[in-house]
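seq:
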Amino acid sequence: MGRVYKRFKEEMNTPTIEAFLLDIAKQAVNEEVYLLCNDKAQEQHCHRFILMDIIEELAKVNNIPLKIVKS
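struct:
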């Protein structure tokens, strides 16, 4: 896990942000949700991929049936 990934993930670890990301997970069960990023970094360092990992983890912990497609 890269330094950028770890730091950003730590910054997203607040009750307010986790609640917001959990809402995205719930919404994504019934409709397509797209996360966009304007960063020119490599994919593994892109913030949207980190957010998708966090959303996927939150969905799993909360028993939300979610399928994430990373592209």
